């Protein structure tokens, strides 16, 4: 039996944009995802956009019953900025206030603590079109005001908050790799957006400290340990630089209140420094996170570059390394990602040894499967592969905890099969199956297993 510490929490994560759906007369504003889908719907799997997702806005009361049946002691979701404040600034949508207050209250009444995230890739469209989103300091201030509004409205109910989910994804996918709107390739702007998000997070934390006196606030980062191909000096250097971009770029300002000098030197070398002030740096240094959420799916394996980078091409972090496909690696055949559970142990050690052993929790960990309906037997999806995935990761997490890492809980992705950006409903991750056309929910085998895991505080 592997037992976890007393008070360890169990749950799952989802986000507003991926699960709530848009309902007639709900007064929700448009987001950048609505615009992206309007412009290029063919890029979204089966042409499914963000309007109709998992329907939690209408079904949250019955969904909470499913959370109880699957052993949740916590539940992480997000507030839709565009639902609460349709234009990003200004008038508040009272229907959204009523929805979120009741949603969060009913979670607590059912013994489930809400962990609420403020931003999950869903910028209000008005702020993107008027100011250029997080490339603008005006949007940093708008976010700070939005955060303050959330704390004032819901801070008496919600005591665990998160500012951003996976901010490096917003940077890479929006301004380098063209997977998220505004679909730009602009390394200078990417660095500015990264800095502005770190500043926005710190400003939100400052507001939190003034309003919610009995809570905790953090940030959720997708940490991908960078493993070198070999112990060759240049492979090691490649991994070091990959880690700076993928992990330290947000981890250091959030937890330490300052940036790694090695990263600053690289940014300077390529003439990519953002516009900043000393006052802003002071805000970042004085408003660090209380807790840290970590999303982990797969490792990052790199090698020294096999060819010289093109000096005239737009700068990418891959200027300094090649991706490395390790022979014999285990793969999720459905999703195409490597399965490497030990990465969670390595993350736990890194946080313990290099980040003051800050309290942290696993905020996402899961296995996506395409065509999962083929595993349905007698009306239930028999997702033993997902149970094994969880078990292996929990074994390594438990080892990290035994060695002193300050992990508070394990939250999986996701609750009910949800809409996932351009992949829409291609890969299913849920403990609970969603029949998309009818919106019927069915607990999977992994959901019942997760209930026993939570009940026993181990397995």
What labels would you give this structure?
17 strands, 15 helices, three-stranded mixed beta sheet, alpha/beta, 459 residues, eight-stranded parallel beta barrel
Distance between the termini: 6 Å
Shape: globular
Biggest sheet, strands in spatial order? 1-2-3-4-5-7-10-14
Counting DSSP H or I runs of 4 or more residues, the number of helices is 15
Tell me the fraction of residues in β-strands, as a range.
15-25%
Helix residue percentage: 40-55%
* Overall average residue pLDDT: 98
Which value, in Å, is the CA radius of gyration? 21 Å
Structural class estimated from helices and strands:
alpha/beta
Largest sheet: 8 strands, parallel, barrel
Q: Which stretches are low in confidence, meaning pLDDT under 50 for 5 or more residues running?
A: none
* Count of extended strands: 17
Give the topology, please:
Elements: E1 9-13, H1 16-19, H2 32-39, H3 56-69, E2 74-78, H4 81-84, H5 94-109, E3 113-117, H6 125-131, H7 137-154, E4 160-165, H8 167-175, H9 187-211, E5 216-222, E6 226-228, H10 233-256, H11 261-269, H12 278-286, E7 291-295, E8 300-303, E9 322-323, H13 342-354, E10 360-364, E11 369-370, E12 376-377, E13 380-381, H14 384-402, E14 407-413, E15 427-428, E16 432-435, E17 440-443, H15 445-456
Parallel strand pairs: 1-2, 1-14, 2-3, 3-4, 4-5, 5-7, 6-8, 7-10, 10-14
Antiparallel strand pairs: 8-9, 11-15, 12-13, 16-17
Helix pairs in contact: 3-5, 7-9, 8-9, 9-10, 9-12, 13-14
């Amino acid at each position: 039996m592997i037992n976890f510490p007393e008070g360890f929490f169990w749950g799952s994560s989802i986000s507003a944009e991926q699960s709530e759906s848009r309902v007639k007369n709900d007064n929700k504003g448009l987001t950048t995802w609505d615009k992206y889908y309007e412009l290029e719907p063919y890029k979204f799997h089966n042409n499914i956009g963000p309007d109709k997702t998992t329907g939690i806005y209408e079904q949250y009361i019955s969904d909470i019953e499913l959370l109880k049946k699957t052993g949740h002691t916590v539940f992480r979701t997000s507030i839709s900025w565009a639902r609460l404040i349709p234009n990003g600034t200004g008038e508040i949508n009272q229907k959204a206030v009523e929805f979120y207050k009741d949603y969060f209250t009913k979670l607590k009444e059912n013994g489930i603590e809400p962990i609420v995230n403020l931003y999950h890739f869903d910028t209000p469209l008005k702020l993107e079109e008027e100011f250029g989103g997080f490339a603008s300091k005006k949007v940093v201030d708008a976010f700070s005001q939005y955060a303050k509004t959330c704390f004032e409205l819901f801070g008496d109910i919600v005591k665990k908050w998160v500012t951003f989910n996976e901010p490096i994804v917003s940077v890479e996918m929006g301004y380098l790799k063209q997977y998220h709107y505004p679909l730009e390739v602009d390394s200078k702007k990417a660095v500015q957006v990264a800095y502005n998000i770190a500043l926005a997070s710190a400003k939100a934390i400052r507001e939190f400290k003034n309003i919610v006196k009995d809570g905790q606030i953090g940030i959720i980062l997708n940490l991908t340990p960078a493993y070198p191909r070999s112990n060759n000096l240049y492979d090691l250097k490649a991994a070091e630089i990959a880690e700076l971009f993928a992990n330290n770029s947000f981890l250091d300002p959030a937890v330490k209140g300052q940036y790694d000098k090695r990263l600053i030197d690289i940014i300077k070398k390529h003439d990519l420094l953002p516009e900043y002030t000393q006052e802003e740096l002071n805000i970042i240094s004085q408003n660090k996170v209380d807790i840290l959420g970590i999303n982990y799916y797969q490792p990052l394996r790199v090698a020294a570059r096999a060819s010289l980078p093109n000096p005239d091409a737009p700068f990418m972090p891959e200027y300094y390394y090649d991706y490395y496909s390790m022979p014999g690696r285990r793969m999720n055949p459905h999703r195409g990602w490597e399965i490497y559970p030990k990465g969670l142990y390595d993350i736990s050690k890194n946080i313990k040894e290099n980040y003051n052993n800050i309290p942290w929790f696993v905020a996402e960990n899961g296995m996506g499967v395409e065509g999962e309906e083929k595993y349905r037997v007698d009306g239930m999806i028999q997702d033993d592969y997902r149970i094994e995935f969880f078990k292996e990761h929990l074994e390594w997490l438990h080892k990290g905890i035994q060695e002193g890492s300050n992990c508070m809980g394990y939250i999986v992705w996701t609750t009910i099969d949800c809409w996932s950006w351009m992949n829409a409903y291609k890969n299913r991750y849920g403990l609970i199956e969603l029949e998309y056309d009818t919106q019927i929910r069915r607990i999977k085998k992994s959901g019942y297993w997760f209930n026993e895991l939570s009940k026993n505080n181990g397995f």
